[in-house]
UniProtKB/TrEMBL annotation:
Source organism, top-level taxon: Bacteria
Record keywords: Plasmid
Listed name of the protein: Radical SAM protein
Length: 318
């Protein structure tokens, strides 16, 4: 296993370590030095030896660079993160699910491998497996190992030394257990995030909204834009890439178009983020808490305004 991964990330270069939350930014000249050290079979440069000892408490002195540091190649694409819906199938029937259908189908193992190589070549360093329930996919373990071997950091068990982040979904059925959920998350995870704003399915079906817990809706954060489609993207079980899990219009068929298809994704994302439809001309748009793709899903579900919009809370501007 590599001790560190050097990777271009947009216009920057970083060095990360599997299982560690700390990393470092490095200039291009140091990135090139690492790349050259691998090609020339040199030992780990002194500056990285010192930095690794300080950041991670490990000693890389005298270690061969080619077996110690995975140097990710430069890419014309600037993506650093991706989510992969390896399969929509699930062995539970969660009321708050955002998927409209949960068919257990997707790519073959060979196609999954080809997709993972494309994600690597797109610059993806942080990959999140999602679903459905990803761990029941017949190829999950194989795909996990493949992604890890390609230098993508994936969340795993805390006991394995990899930072685990938990999502706490608060619904009307478990709101009375919030404190116990927080205690459990603090025991097993490095960090956790609570989600109480239950959304419709991504294609606008309202059924999940019935699971919302009154009194737990958090609308305190103003939406100030996001880099969806520019710095990260989502891939569904069939290899179609979209700006995110919610904004799924105009998908890019990666299996047919390859990486060239991702060049169209930023423009697709920009078009989806325009305030249109039921949000066009809104006088509260400067303080809106909801991104446009999510607002569209609420509107198509004919959700009550108080489940997502400030107008529904009496926050009017006169």
């Amino acid at each position: 296993m590599y001790q560190a991964i050097a990777s271009p990330q947009g216009d920057k270069f970083i060095v990360a370590r599997p299982g560690a939350r700390k990393g470092m930014h490095i200039p291009h000249i140091m990135y090139k030095e690492l790349s050259d050290a691998v090609a020339d079979r040199q030992t780990v440069p002194g500056w990285l030896v010192d930095a690794a000892r300080q950041a991670w408490g490990i000693d890389l002195a005298g270690c061969p660079t080619e077996r110690t540091v995975l140097v990710r190649p430069l890419t014309s694409l600037n993506y650093s993160r991706a989510t992969w819906e390896i399969n929509k199938g699930c062995n539970f029937n969660c009321e708050h699910r955002y998927l409209a259908e949960r068919k257990f189908e997707g790519l073959s193992r060979e196609e999954k491998d080809r997709l993972l190589f494309m994600l690597r070549d797109a610059g993806v360093l942080w990959l999140q497996f999602t679903g459905g329930e990803p761990t029941i996919d017949r190829d999950f373990a194989h795909s996990y190992r493949t992604a890890y071997g390609l230098g993508m950091l994936i969340k795993a068990a805390k006991e394995a030394g990899v930072p685990l982040e938990l999502a706490l979904i608060v619904t009307k059925h478990n709101a009375h257990e919030v404190e116990a959920m927080r205690d459990l998350a603090e025991e097993y995870a490095y960090t956790y995030t609570e989600y109480a704003n239950i959304s419709p399915t991504y294609d606008g079906k309202p059924e999940p909204l019935a699971a919302q817990a009154p009194g737990f809706l958090d609308k305190s954060t103003v939406f100030k834009g996001c880099p969806a489609g520019h710095a990260f993207f989502h891939v569904d079980p069939h290899g179609f890439a979209t700006m995110c899990k919610v904004g799924r219009e105009n998908p890019v068929n990666l299996m047919a178009e390859g990486l060239d298809g991702l060049l169209r994704l930023p423009a697709i994302a920009d078009a989806e983020m325009l305030r249109s439809g039921g949000c066009s001309g809104c006088r509260l748009s400067a303080t809106c808490r909801v991104c446009r793709p999510l607002a569209k899903a609420y509107q198509e579900a004919k959700a009550p305004l108080n489940t997502y919009c400030q107008h529904g809370n009496g926050d009017h501007i006169t």
